[in-house]
Specification:
With about 170 residues, the protein is an alpha/beta fold. Helices cover about 35% and strands about 15% of the residues.
Length: about 170
Protein backbone atom coordinates (compact mmCIF):
# COMPACT_ATOMS: atom_id res chain seq x y z
CA UNK A 1 0.00 0.00 0.00
CA UNK A 2 1.12 3.51 -0.69
CA UNK A 3 0.37 6.63 1.35
CA UNK A 4 -2.61 7.29 -0.91
CA UNK A 5 -4.14 3.90 -0.03
CA UNK A 6 -3.51 2.37 -3.44
CA UNK A 7 -2.04 -1.09 -3.82
CA UNK A 8 1.03 -1.40 -6.03
CA UNK A 9 2.63 -4.61 -7.16
CA UNK A 10 5.15 -6.12 -9.51
CA UNK A 11 4.71 -8.85 -12.09
CA UNK A 12 7.67 -11.07 -12.88
CA UNK A 13 6.06 -13.11 -15.67
CA UNK A 14 7.54 -11.12 -18.55
CA UNK A 15 11.05 -10.75 -17.22
CA UNK A 16 10.97 -14.36 -16.04
CA UNK A 17 9.96 -15.51 -19.50
CA UNK A 18 12.75 -13.53 -21.17
CA UNK A 19 15.32 -14.63 -18.57
CA UNK A 20 14.24 -18.21 -19.26
CA UNK A 21 14.72 -17.77 -23.00
CA UNK A 22 18.16 -16.27 -22.56
CA UNK A 23 19.11 -18.80 -19.90
CA UNK A 24 18.17 -21.63 -22.24
CA UNK A 25 20.32 -20.17 -25.03
CA UNK A 26 17.80 -18.22 -27.14
CA UNK A 27 18.04 -14.59 -28.20
CA UNK A 28 15.34 -12.04 -29.01
CA UNK A 29 17.38 -9.42 -30.86
CA UNK A 30 16.15 -9.02 -34.41
CA UNK A 31 13.45 -11.70 -34.11
CA UNK A 32 9.86 -11.51 -35.34
CA UNK A 33 7.55 -12.67 -32.56
CA UNK A 34 3.90 -13.70 -32.50
CA UNK A 35 2.30 -13.57 -29.05
CA UNK A 36 -0.99 -15.41 -28.61
CA UNK A 37 -3.10 -13.89 -25.84
CA UNK A 38 -3.69 -10.54 -24.18
CA UNK A 39 -4.29 -11.36 -20.51
CA UNK A 40 -2.13 -10.30 -17.57
CA UNK A 41 0.76 -12.69 -18.19
CA UNK A 42 0.60 -12.05 -21.94
CA UNK A 43 0.87 -8.29 -21.41
CA UNK A 44 3.91 -8.77 -19.18
CA UNK A 45 5.53 -11.08 -21.74
CA UNK A 46 4.79 -8.65 -24.60
CA UNK A 47 6.39 -5.72 -22.81
CA UNK A 48 9.46 -7.73 -21.77
CA UNK A 49 10.00 -9.30 -25.20
CA UNK A 50 9.74 -5.90 -26.90
CA UNK A 51 11.95 -4.25 -24.27
CA UNK A 52 14.65 -6.86 -24.88
CA UNK A 53 14.95 -6.00 -28.55
CA UNK A 54 12.86 -8.21 -30.78
CA UNK A 55 12.51 -6.58 -34.19
CA UNK A 56 8.72 -6.87 -34.25
CA UNK A 57 5.99 -8.35 -32.09
CA UNK A 58 2.46 -9.06 -33.26
CA UNK A 59 -0.24 -9.74 -30.70
CA UNK A 60 -3.16 -11.99 -31.59
CA UNK A 61 -6.14 -12.51 -29.33
CA UNK A 62 -9.67 -13.73 -29.94
CA UNK A 63 -10.82 -10.26 -28.82
CA UNK A 64 -9.11 -7.79 -31.16
CA UNK A 65 -9.72 -4.86 -28.78
CA UNK A 66 -7.69 -6.62 -26.07
CA UNK A 67 -4.90 -7.32 -28.55
CA UNK A 68 -4.91 -3.64 -29.53
CA UNK A 69 -4.80 -2.53 -25.89
CA UNK A 70 -1.87 -4.87 -25.22
CA UNK A 71 -0.06 -3.59 -28.31
CA UNK A 72 -0.63 0.02 -27.24
CA UNK A 73 0.68 -0.71 -23.73
CA UNK A 74 3.69 -2.55 -25.14
CA UNK A 75 4.51 0.32 -27.48
CA UNK A 76 4.69 2.70 -24.52
CA UNK A 77 7.53 0.69 -22.99
CA UNK A 78 9.78 0.20 -25.99
CA UNK A 79 11.46 2.14 -28.72
CA UNK A 80 13.45 -0.93 -29.81
CA UNK A 81 10.64 -2.96 -31.35
CA UNK A 82 7.74 -2.34 -33.66
CA UNK A 83 4.45 -3.59 -32.23
CA UNK A 84 1.29 -4.61 -34.03
CA UNK A 85 -1.80 -6.78 -33.90
CA UNK A 86 -2.94 -9.56 -36.15
CA UNK A 87 -5.49 -12.32 -36.34
CA UNK A 88 -4.73 -15.99 -36.81
CA UNK A 89 -6.78 -15.87 -40.00
CA UNK A 90 -4.65 -13.13 -41.58
CA UNK A 91 -1.21 -13.67 -40.03
CA UNK A 92 1.59 -15.12 -42.14
CA UNK A 93 2.43 -17.70 -39.50
CA UNK A 94 5.50 -18.89 -41.38
CA UNK A 95 7.12 -15.45 -41.08
CA UNK A 96 7.69 -15.59 -37.31
CA UNK A 97 10.90 -16.69 -35.63
CA UNK A 98 9.21 -17.19 -32.26
CA UNK A 99 5.58 -17.99 -31.41
CA UNK A 100 4.51 -17.73 -27.76
CA UNK A 101 1.28 -19.23 -26.44
CA UNK A 102 0.19 -17.05 -23.51
CA UNK A 103 -3.39 -18.33 -23.49
CA UNK A 104 -4.99 -21.12 -21.48
CA UNK A 105 -5.24 -23.29 -24.61
CA UNK A 106 -3.22 -26.38 -23.81
CA UNK A 107 -4.08 -26.75 -20.14
CA UNK A 108 -6.24 -29.77 -20.98
CA UNK A 109 -5.28 -32.81 -23.04
CA UNK A 110 -8.22 -32.36 -25.41
CA UNK A 111 -7.45 -28.71 -26.20
CA UNK A 112 -6.72 -27.90 -29.84
CA UNK A 113 -3.34 -26.49 -30.78
CA UNK A 114 -3.23 -22.67 -30.53
CA UNK A 115 -1.94 -22.58 -34.12
CA UNK A 116 -1.21 -25.47 -36.49
CA UNK A 117 2.42 -26.54 -36.15
CA UNK A 118 2.78 -27.15 -39.89
CA UNK A 119 1.94 -23.49 -40.57
CA UNK A 120 5.08 -22.34 -38.70
CA UNK A 121 8.58 -22.02 -40.13
CA UNK A 122 10.62 -25.20 -39.68
CA UNK A 123 13.04 -23.39 -37.34
CA UNK A 124 10.40 -21.39 -35.44
CA UNK A 125 10.88 -21.48 -31.67
CA UNK A 126 7.56 -22.68 -30.23
CA UNK A 127 6.97 -21.41 -26.68
CA UNK A 128 4.30 -21.96 -24.08
CA UNK A 129 3.87 -20.26 -20.72
CA UNK A 130 1.69 -23.10 -19.41
CA UNK A 131 3.59 -24.88 -16.66
CA UNK A 132 1.31 -27.88 -16.10
CA UNK A 133 1.42 -30.05 -18.05
CA UNK A 134 5.18 -29.71 -18.42
CA UNK A 135 4.92 -30.29 -22.17
CA UNK A 136 1.58 -29.36 -23.71
CA UNK A 137 0.32 -31.33 -26.69
CA UNK A 138 1.27 -28.33 -28.81
CA UNK A 139 4.88 -28.43 -27.60
CA UNK A 140 4.99 -32.19 -28.12
CA UNK A 141 3.75 -31.76 -31.71
CA UNK A 142 6.32 -29.02 -32.32
CA UNK A 143 9.10 -31.16 -30.90
CA UNK A 144 7.98 -34.15 -32.98
CA UNK A 145 8.17 -31.93 -36.09
CA UNK A 146 11.78 -31.00 -35.29
CA UNK A 147 11.05 -27.45 -34.15
CA UNK A 148 12.76 -26.09 -31.04
CA UNK A 149 10.48 -25.66 -28.03
CA UNK A 150 10.53 -23.62 -24.85
CA UNK A 151 8.46 -24.83 -21.89
CA UNK A 152 6.48 -22.66 -19.50
CA UNK A 153 8.40 -24.10 -16.58
CA UNK A 154 11.43 -22.05 -17.63
CA UNK A 155 9.47 -18.86 -16.92
CA UNK A 156 8.83 -19.95 -13.34
CA UNK A 157 12.34 -21.22 -12.75
CA UNK A 158 13.87 -17.92 -13.84
CA UNK A 159 11.26 -15.83 -12.00
CA UNK A 160 12.37 -17.26 -8.68
CA UNK A 161 15.77 -15.56 -8.82
CA UNK A 162 14.17 -12.27 -9.91
CA UNK A 163 11.69 -12.41 -7.04
CA UNK A 164 14.45 -13.32 -4.60
CA UNK A 165 16.47 -10.29 -5.66
CA UNK A 166 13.37 -8.07 -5.46
CA UNK A 167 12.65 -9.03 -1.86
CA UNK A 168 16.31 -8.81 -0.87
CA UNK A 169 16.89 -12.53 -0.37
CA UNK A 170 19.74 -12.53 -2.92
CA UNK A 171 22.43 -9.97 -3.64
Amino acid sequence: FDDDGKIYGNNFDGEGFVAGLIGEGYQLQGKRVLLLGAGGAARAVAVAVAHHGCAHIDIANRTLQKAAATAELTGKFTSKSSVGTTTLETADLGAYDIVINATSVGLHDDDPHPVPIDSLASDCLVCDIIMVPDRTNWLIAAEDSGRPVHKGRHMLDYQLELIGRFIGAFD
